[in-house]
Amino acid sequence: MTLDEYIDAAKSAQSLHFDRELDRFLGYKGTACSFWRSKKSRPSAEGMVALAEAAGLDPHVAIIELGLITAEQNHNEHMVIIYQDLKEKVKAASQLAA
To answer: What domain count does the chain have?
Structure first.
């Protein structure tokens, strides 16, 4: 998932209409979601976990996807491959545990 998709999923899950409402829900006073959407910044690991939990999504996968997003934005193909592999392994382990 992209960061935009996490934001939209969290807004939907919390019945929020605007990014600024999600900012407040997550405890941000500024315009964090706007900055994330414009790629001016990325959430911290804690912010990504809060975003995933607000969306009802697996925070373990969200942390990996934050690393993947960072690697993609930094054009680090080696790390992209590692995060993609890790994401698949975590998803497979989750399915086995279920």
So the answer is: 1
